[in-house]
Write a structure and sequence with these properties.
single chain; 370 residues; alpha+beta; Cathepsin B, Chain A; eleven-stranded mixed β-sheet; two-stranded antiparallel sheet; 12 helices; 13 strands
């Protein structure tokens, strides 16, 4: 009888534990800039990576700097166009990109503050690139399908002219806090060195502890990532945060259990509890390397979205979550998370495509392999 009572009590306790509404306590909460909105654009890659670099600037210089996301976008579109045209239209031309595209832009074109280049038409307060991307792609398709089968030398000039109209002309100098800068001198002042940042991923179709060019649609620039085991991947994120480094994240957010409105992202063990999982704690699936690979290869995991991990949190049962800054504005949550999403460890292990961190934040085991 005593054994039965104890067993019943444990079962009841477990039921109660997984029926509670989420209550998060921040364990690591690193400094970052205010939540922004990317508007009606597919430029999360620039917004999230710019936020990541703003935290790096704060860490390195103790300066609060609002970087221009659109300066990077403005300088990346010509490269997207080149890739599309040289592949004769047999490649993706879209608004998407990855963290290394921002770092590549910084290497070549430097950085500027939002006050110097906001990329907005004077009559607009929100970004909307739907017309811009349609005009660009339509024009490029005309050049590619030229009946003369000869590419016009004017196509690059045309691309830049359209970007000038929709985003603004590139700038060579600007004033910031009473001083004159070029984009490269500003980059030097804020101490951002792109070569100091490493992108990690974890997929078993490629040897671990080697570099991998991941074949995903938004990797138009063929950026290389360092491939590690799933356990090392998760450990690298936690270690970076615990050492005071924020983390840039590329992740699939197409799951029904990713909810910006509820500020939660989890992987329920039972599909019947999907709706419940948005508001209450549920048992999550155990994520293995094999299952992660399977979901990637069957297209259930895709490169949807980039965000900025700024901390670690625990729920009332001690389960770890990653506090993640989104770029969909601060008023979208029904709960009071202000534009942040608490992403469970299971969700990260299954759905994270890659992460970018400063090389000094890496674990010893990964650093030794680089």
């Amino acid at each position: 009888m005593r054994k039965l009572i104890i067993t019943s009590a444990l079962a009841f306790s477990s039921f109660i534990g997984f029926s509670q509404e989420y209550q998060f306590t921040d364990v690591v909460d690193l400094e970052c800039s205010e939540v922004k909105s990317q508007g009606q654009t597919g430029t999360c890659w620039s917004f999230s990576t710019s936020s990541f670099l703003e935290s790096e600037i704060k860490r390195l210089t103790d300066k609060n700097v609002d970087l221009s996301e659109m300066y990077t976008v403005r300088n990346t579109y010509p490269k997207k166009a080149w890739n599309y045209v040289m592949r004769q239209g047999k490649a993706q031309f879209s608004e998407g990109g990855l963290a290394h595209d921002v770092l590549n832009s910084v290497s070549e074109f430097g950085l500027v503050p939002e006050s110097a280049f906001n990329g907005l038409d004077k009559d607009n307060e929100r970004h909307n690139h739907s017309e811009l991307i349609a005009v660009l792609k339509g024009m490029l398709d005309v050049y590619i399908s030229n009946p003369a089968r000869k590419l016009s030398p004017r196509w690059k000039t045309s691309v830049n002219s359209i970007l000038d109209i929709y985003l603004g002309e590139n700038i060579k100098t600007f004033n910031y806090n009473g001083q004159e800068y070029t984009p490269k001198s500003f980059q030097k002042m804020v101490k951002i060195s792109p070569e100091n940042y490493i992108t990690l991923t974890s997929f078993s179709h490629h040897p671990f502890n080697t570099n991998l060019v991941l074949n995903i649609p938004d990797n138009f620039s063929n950026g290389s990532m360092f491939n590690v085991t799933l356990n090392e991947f998760e450990k690298a994120i936690v270690t970076a945060l615990e050492r005071g480094y924020t983390v840039e994240l590329d992740i699939d957010v197409s799951e029904k259990t990713f909810s910006s409105k509820n500020g939660i992202a989890v992987i329920p063990n039972d599909l019947s509890s999907v709706k419940k999982a948005l508001t209450s704690i549920v048992k999550e699936k155990d994520i293995t390397q094999a299952y992660r690979q399977q979901e990637f290869e069957n297209y259930n995991t895709t490169d949807d979205h980039l965000m900025h991990i700024t901390g670690l949190a625990k729920d009332q049962n001690g389960t770890v979550y990653f506090k993640t800054k989104n770029s969909w504005g601060s008023n979208g949550n029904r709960v009071n998370y202000g534009g942040y999403v608490y992403i469970s460890t299971a969700f990260i292990k299954l759905k994270a495509i890659s992460v970018t961190v400063h090389k000094d934040a890496l674990t010893k085991s990964i650093s030794s392999q680089l």
